[in-house]
Amino acid sequence: MPLLRIQIYQPQAHYRIPFTYSRRHSYAIPPYSTIIGFLCNACGIDDQNRVLYKTIRELKISISGQFKSKLTEMIWFRNVSKEAHVRTYGSIDHREKNGQIGHIGGQSPISIDVLQDVKLLIYLYHKEKEKLETLKVKLENPVDRLQVLHIGRAEDWLVYKSIDFIDDSKFEYKRRDGNYKYFTWIPEKIFSLNGNTVNWDNFDGITYLLTTHSHIQNYENHRNHTGKRFYEKIEAKLNEGKIIQSQCIFDKELNIPVFLGDL
To answer: Pick from 13, 199, 212, 228: most CB atoms within 10 A?
Structure first.
């Protein structure tokens, strides 16, 4: 049962928690939907009817990561409401201020949390290895990408440290108590490798309702991959690295627990 393991470095990143506004908080690691979006971008998938998109929907995904520090920055967000426009220009019919023509609306100061020196570990499983091999080629040589490769904001570029296949000999199922210094999503629906059962209730972590796959509204009519999306969701715990009193799958090479989400 081979898995594709992707090690990624990002100088900085923001994985927005969607219900935060005046201060935009970040998850410690990206949610499943962000990684799925990254894969679609790298593969050039702008049509949800493509065969490769169906492969991505069938993937079992594990996400872990760590960062060195977190900063809170102040940025300007544009507000295009009529009220904001009037506050800026004095009238709904004007766009001139200090002798210059400006954008419509106004601006609002926003605080945003930014993670520094981010390391991510992503594991992908598919029962058909040739489909993972196709995905590996697309990731390593993303000539069809839709945008610059990023995870999080458009400016959160990334560098591959490695993209490797690892087989059964690199995994072990056992209890190994310790603090592994990585944040990890532990999904409620954990995919079982080799028939081993992992009990979600045995692990610590704050529970989140995370977005996974999405459906673009009326995509068949407008073919716009940036259209309005409706997301599927899954419950997952954000574990901070402490794994005790429970058996789970470990990557023996990196000494990291792996929790594949059955999305």
So the answer is: 13
CATH class entry, domain 3-258: alpha beta
> Is 153 within 8 Å of 45 (Cβ atoms)?
no
Which residue intervals of 141-259 are DSSP H helices? Answer: 219-222
The per-residue pLDDT for range 57-92, each reduced to its tens digit, is 999 999 999 999 999 999 888 878 888 888 888 888
More confident: 139 or 98: 139
The count of other CB atoms within 10 Å of the CB of residue 84 is 16
What DSSP element (H or E) covers 36? helix 32-43
User: How many Cβ atoms are within 10 Å of 8's Cβ, its own excluded?
Assistant: 22
pLDDT at position 142 is 95
d(CA 222, CA 219): 5
| Cα distance between residue 6 and residue 165, in whole Å | 9
pTM greater than the 0.85 cutoff: yes
pLDDT of residue 225: 67
Angle CA 119–260–138, to nearest 5: 65
Q: 163-202: b or e for each residue (b if 16 or more CB lie within 10 Å)?
A: beebeeebbeeeeeeeebebbbbbbeebbebeeeebebee
The residues spanned by each domain of the chain are 3-258
Burial of 204 (0-12, 13-18, 19+ CB in 10 A): middle
pLDDT value, residue 101: 84
Phi, psi of 201 (to 5 degrees): -65, -15
Q: Which of 256, 1, 5, 8 is nearest to 124 (CA)?
A: 5
For 70, 124, 254, the CA distances from 211, given in Å and listed in that order, are 23, 17, 28
